[in-house]
Recover the amino acids of this structure.
């Protein structure tokens, strides 16, 4: 099991999710179990196999570089949790 | 009882002006009022808006038009809460979106509206489509219409339950690892996952972008074909959508499957399948053979690795996609002293346990030092899984399997055992990894209690036409699709 123990606190910080100590313990154990299961992929020899990013063989999909209609400013701001002067409000970033 | 009709039947009656769209919509609303307090398929419904759309459809009907002209005109179609419908709430079954209201229509919604459908309701789902039981909804657990103590499947549990409980005529769901087919099987309706790229994902809240597809759920195969036809097609706003014409799926259903080569993947008929499911699927395969299909045993050697591959790729993509829910531009916000604290608090309070588990797993498999061992390796195994399918499809036209290893389980049975829950996706997951199309339709019932069993057919990339025709042939030669639950 030790092999599959993950540093839940560190991963949760990377993912920007605050966890309670109880959550850390429970999720940590469950993730260890899932990771243990996932280990089975190591049985396979994947030497020389190309990775698949998605199933449709498309490359370099582009469109003409022209302005298209998009959401209006007020529509884009419509669901903002906090706003002022047509801008999203955030906590202070610079001291 | 207009709500009990199939889409094909409603469409014909509307075209003949035997009924109005308003009456059909009202019948669905009455049914929702009657049964949804028990089923909980819907998170919300706006009756005024739905009836106004129905009245507009009645006005738009041309006097001499037939049902083939605009088959969806005036037909109530309910929508999974993961698709953007302009001016309607969208929560993805999560608290984190707060009182979010969509500022635009998803492409599939635009298309349904253009076809004249009455687009209504927000159907319950596992939070961010992560789950196999709809128990992960932050709001309420949807019940299986056949047995209210059991799950309806997931993540499109509301979409399947609403169709089977006759609360709508058809619905839309989304399928990342089986989320349309699996609840269709457990509730007893038809559910189709199109080929990756067949349907535009614009306006579908992303879970795992390389696996997600929107798909129809309906009472019959023809109904699903009619909805698929309306929502398919290239879309400049989804760079992964395929530039290929949409066939007239419904019109080409002729039920003739003589000489069709039907593959039985030997890895799918091993241990762990409930005996009643095994028996129902065996009888269904015999029926397909009677109809003229030729059975061929095939092998998909990497089947055993599909779930592990899926839960690396899907969670990795989810961890990136769900980074956008940060409490800044929309949704719920929990205050913090600085932006990082705000993100952590908002996401800690807003996401439920399964979403947290998957984001953490996805973050871990992408993190420095583990990326190659997990994510890159999974992408390579994905190549092997896809090659298995493409190779097998050189020998056969379709594959046939159970959709689920068991009928619907009890609410609460697997909720604290995520790995067991993940393992129940064994038959549906590879289809998304390979990017092919798949469909589930009713093929029988367990005895005691009486619960639906689903048959899964898998088709080649863009092979929806053949897939639907074989399903139609089977369905029309059996009576399973006519069975209805007693809703008390």
């Amino acid at each position: 099991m030790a092999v599959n123990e993950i540093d839940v606190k560190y991963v949760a910080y990377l993912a920007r999710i605050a966890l309670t100590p109880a959550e850390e313990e429970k999720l940590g154990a469950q993730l260890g179990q899932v990771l243990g299961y996932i280990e089975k992929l190591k049985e396979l020899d994947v030497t020389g196999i190309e990775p698949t990013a998605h199933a449709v063989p498309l490359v370099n999909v582009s469109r003409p570089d022209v302005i298209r209609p998009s959401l209006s400013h007020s529509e884009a701001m419509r669901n903002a949790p906090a706003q002022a002067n047509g801008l999203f409000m955030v906590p202070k970033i610079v001291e | 009882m207009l709500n009990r009709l199939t889409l094909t039947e409603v469409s014909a009656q509307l075209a003949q002006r035997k009924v109005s769209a308003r009456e059909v919509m009202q019948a669905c609303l009455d049914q929702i009022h009657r049964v949804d307090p028990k089923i909980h398929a819907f998170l919300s419904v706006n009756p005024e808006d739905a009836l106004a759309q129905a009245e507009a459809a009645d006005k738009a009907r041309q006097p001499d038009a037939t049902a083939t002209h605009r088959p969806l005109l005036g037909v109530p179609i309910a929508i999974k809460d993961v698709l953007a419908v302009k001016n309607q709430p969208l929560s993805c079954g999560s608290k984190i979106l707060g009182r979010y209201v969509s500022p635009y229509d998803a492409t599939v919604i635009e298309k349904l509206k253009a076809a004249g459908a009455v687009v209504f309701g927000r159907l319950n789902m596992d939070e961010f489509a992560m789950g196999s039981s709809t128990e992960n909804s932050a709001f309420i657990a949807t019940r299986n219409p056949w047995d209210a103590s059991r799950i309806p499947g997931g993540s499109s549990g509301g979409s399947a339950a609403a169709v089977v409980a006759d609360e709508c005529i058809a619905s839309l769901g989304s399928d990342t690892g089986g989320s349309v087919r699996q609840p269709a099987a457990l509730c007893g309706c038809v559910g189709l996952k199109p080929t990756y790229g067949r349907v535009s994902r614009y306006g579908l809240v992303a879970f795992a972008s390389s696996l997600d597809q929107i798909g129809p759920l309906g009472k019959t195969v023809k109904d699903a074909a009619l909805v698929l036809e309306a929502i398919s097609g290239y879309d400049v706003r989804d760079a992964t959508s395929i530039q290929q014409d949409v066939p007239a799926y419904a019109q080409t259903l002729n039920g003739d499957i003589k000489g069709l080569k039907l593959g039985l993947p030997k890895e799918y008929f091993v241990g762990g399948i409930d005996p009643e499911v095994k028996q129902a699927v065996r009888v269904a395969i015999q029926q397909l053979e009677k109809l003229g299909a030729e059975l061929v045993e095939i092998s998909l050697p990497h089947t055993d690795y599909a779930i592990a591959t899926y839960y690396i790729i899907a969670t990795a993509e989810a961890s990136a996609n769900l980074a956008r829910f940060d409490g800044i531009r929309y949704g719920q916000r929990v205050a913090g002293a600085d932006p990082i604290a705000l993100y952590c608090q908002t996401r800690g309070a807003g996401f439920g346990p399964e979403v947290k588990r998957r984001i953490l797993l996805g973050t871990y498999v992408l993190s420095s030092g583990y990326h190659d061992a997990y994510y890159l390796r999974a992408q390579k195994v994905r190549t092997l899984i896809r090659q298995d399918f493409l190779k097998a499809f050189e020998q056969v036209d379709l594959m046939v399997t159970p959709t689920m290893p068991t009928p619907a389980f009890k609410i609460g049975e697997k909720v604290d055992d995520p790995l067991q829950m993940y393992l129940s996706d064994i038959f549906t997951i590879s289809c998304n990894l390979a990017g092919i199309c798949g469909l589930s339709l009713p093929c029988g019932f367990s005895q005691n209690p009486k619960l639906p069993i689903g048959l899964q057919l898998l088709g080649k990339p863009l092979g929806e036409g053949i897939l639907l025709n074989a399903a139609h042939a089977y369905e029309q030669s059996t009576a399973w699709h006519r069975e209805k639950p007693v809703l008390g």
